[in-house]
Amino acid sequence: MSDPEPEYDDVSETDKRPVLSPPLLFRSFLTIASSSVACLIIYAIIGLALAALFFPNVWAALTGDQAVTDLDFPIPISMLIPWIVLHGICCVGIGWLTAKVAPFAANKHGLILAIFLFIGWMQKVFESGPNRLGMNAAFTVVVPLAIAYGARKYCDRQTDSDLTAQEVA
């Protein structure tokens, strides 16, 4: 029987940098992709829940219950602020979880996710009409910052626990 190939080699023969195996890189990709999908699903769930519970006219426009549906209808500011706050809180959790399940370089996974979502929201800003421009611009700022903050909080917590473990030993 041969020994299983390690996922993370210490040092290769020709290079001083660690070598990452394809399964480890695939796991890294899946971490970023699933976190991105989770962020978008939570965005939709929070928006639909707020509309269904507190804003019946927005709910009717979102679900197509109206005879004529305007895709660029304005979202009331009284719905937008809780939506941004709740989604920001959820994105902090997603950033923290992304860093926790990252196979290596936890903070970098959070930053890559934040950059990826920033680019996606920038595309949304450029394609949005005048009624949704402010809303999409606000999410463009809040979502990546919350993701990066959550990842950073996880890394800071890990660093603090590593330092206390070294002091005890």
What would a concise description of this structure say?
By secondary structure, the protein is mostly helical.
Structural class, by secondary structure, is mainly alpha
Estimate the mean pLDDT confidence: 87
List SSEs in N-to-C order.
EEHHHHH
Q: Fraction of residues in helices?
A: over 70%
Task: Report on the architecture of this protein.
The protein is mainly alpha-helical. The chain is built from 5 helices and 2 strands; from the N terminus they run E-E-H-H-H-H-H. The chain has helices at 22-54, 56-63, 77-101, 106-127, 133-168; strands at residues 8-9, 19-20. The chain has a two-stranded antiparallel ribbon with strand order 1-2.
Task: Please outline the helices and strands.
Blueprint lengths: L7 E2 L9 E2 L1 H33 L1 H8 L13 H25 L4 H22 L5 H36 L1
Antiparallel strand pairs: 1-2
Notable characteristics:
mainly alpha, two-stranded antiparallel sheet, 169 residues
